[in-house]
Amino acid sequence: MKIKIILFAFVIFAAGLKAQDTFSIVAVDTLTGEMGSAGASCIDNSAIAGGALIISDVLPGRGVIHTQSYWLAANQTNARNRMLAGDSPQQIIDWLVTNDVQNQPGRRQYGIVDLDPEGHPRSAAYTGATSADWKGHIIGRNYAIQGNILLNQGIVDSIEARFLRAEGNLSDKLMEALQGANVPGADSRCLNEGVSSLSAFLRVAKPQNRPDSLYLHLNVKQTPYGVEPIDSLQVLYDNWKMLVGIQNPAANDLDQWEIYPNPSEGILYVKIKNEVDKILNINVLDQNGKTILQMDAEAFKGKINIAGFKNGNYFVQIDLESGKQWVRKFVKI
User: Fold this and answer.
1) Taking each helix axis from N to C terminus, what angle separates 170-179 and 154-165, rounded to the nearest 10 degrees?
2) Where are the domains of the chain?
3) Is 146:127 a contact under the CB 8 Å cutoff?
4) Distance spanning both ends of the chain, measured CA to CA
């Protein structure tokens, strides 16, 4: 059952820092055991190293903790220790409220999810009553969404709606959830700049990962004035997905085609071994994911002239009629 609480919250990231606003989501995937963390804030790298990322603590195979609003390292460390000791998300929050390092729990905001020993999801959140508007949180079966000093309640509602509607894996859902807050002033103190926030992050852990080496770790620490960090994060995520697809292609895709010679100096040959689907387009992308050459199937004829390309890493992407894509990396020397 989903619980919605509208309270008053405030964010500060260290003693002496001006209070800032934050929206975030923590979630687990019961099928894969993956655990994820995403968020954004009007704090950026110029105010504190890493920007919004400071709120995130991901413990692979165990759970995810977000501590925000008047953030204190000691409270975050205590939350982590309670999770490692086996406490449930609600038990951790109850302990934190009772044992706040500064005895000011009303200032804080928490969102915590985990998987119990049987693999069932548990979630809990807390928004302190003595902080500033607008703030609140939403709890779902396998997620918690929280925000403070927001434009309005619609921000957290939109994050939830996009998360629940999104298709794909946990990282896809978390990225889509952040896009739900991609409106000017989602963090209200960023309204004058016309952006949602100043920094944004996305992290996902597989069960076997170490806390310091996650499957996915993307962080936009800071952007130029007026540049939306969630859009910048989306670009990083799209590029990451392409690279992961190259590094971990399905075995049957590997069997369908090859490119040679690799490295190549001038002509790159592409051989389709088993044409099981019609080819629509052949694209060459640079290492940033930008398309620099595109051909239709008729112009392709099995080879690509890369003589004019600069030396470096590139990708060949084949778009199939079925909607599937094949991607391989090659090197121009």
Assistant:
1) 150
2) 3-245, 251-332
3) yes
4) 58
Task: Report the 10 Å Cβ neighbour count for 312.
Answer: 10
Neighbours of 282 (CB within 10 A): 21
Q: Report the topology of domain 3-245.
A: Glutamine Phosphoribosylpyrophosphate, subunit 1, domain 1 (3.60.20)
Q: Which residues of the chain carry a pLDDT beneath 50? A: 1-20, 251
The SS3 call for residue 138 is strand
Query: 271: buried, middle or exposed (CB in 10 Å: 19+, 13-18, 0-12)?
Result: exposed
Helix (H) or strand (E) holding 255: helix 251-256
> CA-to-CA distance for 320 and 59, rounded, in angstroms?
39
Spatial separation of the C-alpha atoms in residues 323 and 279, rounded to whole Å: 10
Q: Which two tokens stand for residue 21?
A: 């606003």
According to CATH, what is the number of the domain 251-332?
2.60.40.3080
Query: Residue 270 in 3-state DSSP?
Result: strand
Q: What residues contact residue 181 under an 8 Å CB cut-off, 6+ apart?
A: 23, 40, 147, 155, 158, 159, 196, 197, 230
pLDDT confidence of residue 319: 82
